Amino acid sequence: MGILRQLLFGKYLLITNTVSCGLMMAAGDVIQQRSEYWKKYSHKYFPTSVIAASPEDEETTAIISSTSMYGHDYARTRNMTVVGLIQGPFHHWFYTILDRVLPGRSAKLIVKKTLLDQSIASPTCLAIFFVGLGILEHCKSEEICKELKLKLKIRWIKGCLLLDV
Ligand SMILES: *[C@@H]1O[C@H](CO)[C@@H](O)[C@H](O)[C@H]1NC(C)=O
């Protein structure tokens, strides 16, 4: 119990938050990759038409079935995990400071905390996400900036509207 308490509330909380953030990013990416695969190839499992009209069609079918085996992109999951491990400490410190600056759970405080969360934590996390992935993909910094501005805006607006999709 001692260790668990320390992991969840004590001096190891930073490590717990960092590791869990990394693991959640990894799990999220695994689910996302499977779902992308499923969306792309579900027609293979539920074919709407089984008639091959021309030899060309047969060829495409053969190509699809040979390339449609699920192959996990481990590099992508690893990159996501790395980004999660960087976001972890930020989350940890942000919410620790937030609780110190605004202790309490009254409705007014919750509104304030939510506003600070949306205006500071959310854009910072998105920046870590896109810049981190950009660096991992060896993009030029100009490209990162352009991509960052565009994606940040879209994601942040979606986040504010609670459209986390
Ligand atoms: C992941 O990182 C590696 C190494 O930095 C990079 O070569 C690769 O393009 C990245 N892959 C994705 C999908 O981001």
TrEMBL record:
It is a multi-pass membrane protein. Residues 1-22 form the signal peptide. Keywords: Membrane, Signal, Transmembrane, Transmembrane helix. It is found in: Membrane. One of its GO terms (cellular component) is mitochondrion. One of its GO terms (biological process) is mitochondrial ribosome assembly. It comes from the Eukaryota. Belongs to the peroxisomal membrane protein PXMP2/4 family. This is Mpv17-like protein 2. It comes from Lasius platythorax.
